[in-house]
Amino acid sequence: MDGLDARVPAISPRRPLRDSVTTFGALSWSGFRRYATYRQATIAGSFTNIVFGFLRCYVLLAVAAGAAGGRPGGYDTTQLTTFVWVGQGLLTVVSLWGWTELADRIRSGDVAADLLRPVPVVGGYLASDLGRAGHAMIFRFLPPLAVGALFFDLYVPGRWFTVPLFALSIGLAVVASLALRFLVNATAYWLHDARGPIILWTLSSGILAGLYFPLRFLPDWLAVTMWVATPFPGLLQTPLDVLVERDPAPVQVGLVALQAVWAAALLALAALVQRRAEKRLVVQGG
């Protein structure tokens, strides 16, 4: 590849930690550069997110205008507009849809090459996805946010720790999203064709994550059940609620702690599924 250094440092038994960090950083940087090459797709995607941002914003403002007290789900109008525009930016950062790389490699048999590399499969995909998320934070998150701030009044956090807590929440959301997408794609190890699970994931993840409407619009018992019993609110709803300070500070911190538990559990589950799959891996065609 012209102009690109595709080498990945080997992990030495004498310096495992430093070399592991170096390798993880190299894979993350390669993920960033990979998505930086698709300039026209980035511009088109940002434009699409901005258009849908206007549509979603006016729909939720109409809901707020018709709600008793003008605070549906406990959000005022500035919190709702911030929820929409930041959510439009985070949609690509967290990346709910469109990733079928693992399933495609399993189906073609190319995943066998992944098992020969000195990097765990889950760790390699996580590093690359963090690089993708870093690119999206710059080129897909900021444009919708800037447009939203230009045309609407956005909520300005009043607590000093909200912004760093929001940044941590975004990182946890990216990790959880990658783990969930990995698990959905990994069904191809047993099904050989993961299109069914991927379609189900595409149809359900946006609703369960709070993309189309805030989950606080649902009855309290249902919203709490979804938060505790499923990881989906941690993908979008938790970061957005943290930013707009929908809850008191202790609840705000507790939501991020719950998000961290889910992210760690999902990552561990993805690693476990990968180890089980390697024991019975069958490459189609021989």
UniProtKB/TrEMBL annotation:
InterPro entries: ABC-2_transporter-like (IPR010390)
Record's keyword terms, sorted: Membrane, Transmembrane, Transmembrane helix
Transmembrane segments: 43-68, 80-99, 137-155, 161-184, 196-215, 253-273
Keyword hit for Transmembrane helix: yes
Protein name (Swiss-Prot/TrEMBL): ABC-2 type transport system permease protein
Lineage: Bacteria, Bacillati, Actinomycetota, Actinomycetes, Micromonosporales
